[in-house]
Amino acid sequence: MLASPTADAQVLRENLWITDSAPNAIAVSGNTIYLGGDFKQVSPATGASVAIDAGTGALSSPAPGVSGIVNAVAADGSGGWYIGGSFNSVRGQTRHNAAQIDASGNVTAWNPDPNSEVRELAVSGNTVYVGGPFNIIGGAARSCIAALDGVTGAAKAWDPNVNGPVYAIVADGGLVYVGGSFGVVGGATRTNIAAIDGVTGTVTGWAPNADNYVYELAMGSGTLYAGGLFTSIGGSPRNRIASLNVASGAAGSWNPNADGRVSAIAVSGGLVYVGGDFLNIRGMAHARLAAIDATGSATPWDPDVDATGGVSAITISGGSIYVGGSFKTCGGLSRRHLASFDLASGALSSWNPMANDGVNALASNGSRIYAGGFFTGIGGVQRTGLAAIDAIGGSATAWNPTCDGEIFAIEVKDATVYAGGLFTIAGGSTRSNVAAISSTTGLATAWKPNPNGKVRAIAVRGDTVYIGGTFTVAGGGARINAAAIGAAFSGTALNWIPNPDGEVFDLELSPDELLVYAAGNFATIGAQSRGHGAVLRASDGQALAFNPNSNSTIATLAINGNIVYAGGAFATIGGQPRDCIAALNAVTGSATSWNPDANGSVRGLAVDGGFVYAGGFFNFVGGQPRGGVAQIEIGSGNATSWNAALTGGANDLAMGGGTVYLAGPLGVTGSPHVNFAGIGITVLGIDEGSDSRNATTLRLSPNPFSGNVDVRFALAVAGTPTVDIFDVTGRRVRRIESTFTRPGHNAVRWDGRNDAHVMTAPGLYLVRVATEREQLSAKLLRVE
């Protein structure tokens, strides 16, 4: 009884695509994961900065995996780029707010480590100018602006000492022009805009003094253009955009008079391209993006950027202008946050990388466009409300039912996906709030119960579909909040009428499918008083003795033999104090002694391999700090060492193929995976009762992998290990390391390259760790 249980370790499924908003429901069937919610797009989890082919829109691989927000990007001159923003990791390595990414997408050693966010970057030779609200960067005290060595990241002696955040930087002709929200530079009064000597760091006499924030600066033909929120600059009234004389600082006669914020400026061929939140230029309608000529008037070019958001970034490369922002369409066509136009004709191009959230910054090196922003994924596909993810390859399948509302429940039976929620169209047909959709074609079947309200729960038993939610009519009959619908043809209501007096959140079938367990926010059901939970006969809807009598909502149930696990927002259930999670006798509903005691709501439950997996909005459960998801021992109620390191919380979870899939407003610490994640459970092979320091183990993380993989192993005795990688033909492709290693845990990293440092192809590999006395091996899958 005192033997230690086998320990499990968490392995993030890095190849799984993610959604652009949190799904509500998840179901696994074979090698397919179905997601439902209010999302509009699924995409690879690239993180907040990527390199994109300037011609095709294809992503460079691997993506850097920036976890956080990127406000600024700048090409480094060697095929890579610098990024600045508010983030903590890049490709799993700690980087606070600033980093360099090489041409292969890997993070370099450049690490200035600013103590607050970075808002702007500019590169001049071997110097990287950085602006933001920081006061320490590159190992030195620097207030809001610094010049960093482009190789080491160390702060140079240059120290203008600005007293407020710097949002814009242009280095030109030995001077560094800065804009932002400040009042003093180098001890001199300079309101929101200044020029600084590029060598000494001394502020010059140039003083246009803007009366509000300056967000953008751009140089063109010896003229400095400024954009922001100001109404006066260079001694003249100028609304949000102006040209400034680089000698005197006076505003030129050029006066576009934008009626909203200007956030982006680029100059090319005698035209000034501007982006922002404005609607008019010189009183003429030109919303959010315009080309302005030498007179200050907008040209006839009308890119028709939609009203969902403005333009935050512009870069010009070759014969194209690239724009980024929070928009969803341009020219009436879908362009999610990124678009490109031909410079000569102004026509919208086919370039369409599809970011899943706003783009803050763009830069170019000619062949590639570097992007940064709020996004976590680029290069995906549109999927509205419903999506299917390949559990092996990780990408979205072709299945695309397209729902015009929000999905709250999914159940898969044979070749049919049942989806419930609040919608009027699904699978290409008119369907109110619940639909049966072919798992192959994505088209709705003829089944059409049309409940008149939200469907939150679905269970399928043979030719009967049980639904729960908040409705009064379903299948052509009066049915309050719960109904049984015939699975064939029109979807007529059956004579199963429990009529709960509140919303139903979950329906689960007993193992023999003779009983339907219901959970929700009701007090009576089946003509009986039942506090938030009940068991109903599947045949006639009669409530049986089961009565957990919870004091608040039960959101989810999982049945394991004669035990019903319940999760929700309750404090008492089954006659006992139980916070948000409990085990109930399946007949009576009384609580067992099992008591993990979660400190926040539980939304999803699953039972697998002697453990209960709980997902929700807690950060402590089973006696351990566990964010959003936990593996809990069935016997003791204690959380195991398995720790997915989630932030946020989970709306639902499902198990499949040794992986816990989670859906909700979640994040994975140190990873760009948000809203949807798969966390593998890998048995380490620790013998019961043994000391793990002397156990022989091998673990690969992540597996499958696309970038780097950590080979972690423990040896029972000291030895000289060789770590070899073999392909499926048995040919050795890489020997990683051969050094003397002590007993216990050790680790090496494989970068996916062979002995010639050429990237290996996707496929199956064998990892072998061998010493004179021990040999360990494990299979490893490399994916794109």
Show the helix and strand layout.
Blueprint: E1 8-12, E2 18-19, E3 25-29, E4 32-36, E5 41-43, E6 49-53, E7 67-75, E8 81-90, E9 93-94, E10 98-101, E11 120-124, E12 127-131, E13 136-137, E14 140-141, E15 145-149, E16 166-172, E17 175-180, E18 184-185, E19 188-189, E20 193-197, E21 214-220, E22 223-228, E23 232-233, E24 236-237, E25 241-245, E26 262-268, E27 271-276, E28 280-281, E29 284-285, E30 289-292, E31 311-317, E32 320-325, E33 329-330, E34 333-334, E35 338-342, E36 359-364, E37 368-373, E38 381-382, E39 386-390, E40 406-413, E41 416-422, E42 425-426, E43 429-430, E44 434-438, E45 454-461, E46 464-470, E47 473-474, E48 477-478, E49 482-486, E50 504-509, E51 515-520, E52 524-525, E53 528-529, E54 533-537, E55 554-560, E56 563-568, E57 572-573, E58 576-577, E59 581-585, E60 602-608, E61 611-616, E62 620-621, E63 624-625, E64 629-633, E65 646-648, E66 652-656, E67 659-668, E68 674-683, E69 697-701, E70 709-715, E71 722-726, E72 732-738, E73 744-750, E74 763-770, E75 775-782
Antiparallel strand pairs: 1-68, 2-5, 3-4, 4-39, 5-38, 6-37, 7-8, 8-9, 8-10, 11-12, 12-15, 13-14, 16-17, 17-20, 18-19, 21-22, 22-25, 23-24, 26-27, 27-30, 28-29, 31-32, 32-35, 33-34, 36-37, 40-41, 41-44, 42-43, 45-46, 46-49, 47-48, 50-51, 51-54, 52-53, 55-56, 56-59, 57-58, 60-61, 61-64, 62-63, ...
